[in-house]
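Two proteins were folded this term; both appear here.
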Amino acid sequence: YGAGLEDKPEVVVLNKTDAMTPQALTSRKKALERACGGPVMLASGATGEGVPEVLRRLMDVIRKAR
């Protein structure tokens, strides 16, 4: 992509957690953490679980960038 995209802050979220078994969720989260090299948040758009935490994290990132 270029154009400085790699320098922008990043929040990685694994969505659709309501559709995963606990074992699949753990496995996919670990794999995504290895792939992105950082923490991964969990959320479910369908149930709303984890969404407030993701929104708070996004607001923190935005505030720091201003």
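Next, the second protein.
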Amino acid sequence: MKVQVILVAAGAGTRLKAAKPKALVLLKSKPLVWYSLKVFESAPSVDGIILVVHRDSVKAFRNAVFRNSFKKVKIVTPGGETRSDSVGCGLRCVDPDTDVVMV
């Protein structure tokens, strides 16, 4: 069975008053998104991760994924205006032979 995860990390961090997307804010020298990615990266049942981020931050997230050697991240894609739109963007990236999608 093929399992893919859509991780929606497109929040701007306005309530956090962050100068960068909240998922890239550091906690113990790691970006917040690292902690979620690490869980799915180490889960044997997960075959791939689709990371959905704010359209202005795609490059920064790709760099973070590369620096941290996350092998299961198949794509970093821009999200939409709302969380629902962003989930839709992630769903359009799911491999056709996937059996289970976790959001």
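The first helix runs from residue 32 to 42. The radius of gyration is 13 Å. These notes refer to the second protein only.
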